[in-house]
Specification:
The two termini are 19 Å apart. The protein has 7 helices and 6 strands.
């Protein structure tokens, strides 16, 4: 399944134990991550500025980058999200023909879907696509 993993999910999965760590370590490789330069730069910036981490010291980031299908999203016109910065997540998903966006961002979650793309929380992602049985 093609999935955009929002920056907040990836950062939480890298810097903390818990649900997002499970997603990053176990479930990201089971899917086709969709990525774009704006999202990659945001991810690197957050890790560097907020946590003092650099991509070259995080093997998990290298794996994510290699697994990802990259695309070049176009700016949404008109904007679709109440936070204009989140439009890059939507645009990346749209350009990459993603089936889902996994995010903890309330501005994106409030949309519930964009075109045919489901927008779900990390918990909902696991419940919907990774339930045992």
């Amino acid at each position: 399944m093609k999935v955009v993993f929002d920056t907040n999910v990836l950062v939480a999965g890298i810097v903390a134990e818990g649900l997002c760590r499970e997603i990053v370590e176990i479930h990201v490789p089971e899917h086709t991550p969709i990525l774009s330069q704006p999202l990659w730069e945001e991810l690197l910036g957050v890790l560097r500025v907020k946590f003092g981490l650099h991509a070259d010291t995080l093997p998990l980031l290298g794996l994510y980058r290699r697994l990802a299908v990259w695309n070049e999203p176009q700016r949404l016109d008109p904007p679709a999200c109440r936070d204009p910065d989140d439009d890059w997540v939507l645009a990346t998903a749209l350009a990459g023909e993603a089936e889902a966006i996994v995010t903890g961002d309330d501005d994106l979650l409030a949309l519930r879907h964009y075109h045919e793309i489901a927008i779900v929380s990390p918990r909902r992602f696991l419940e919907r696509w990774h339930s045992p049985g």
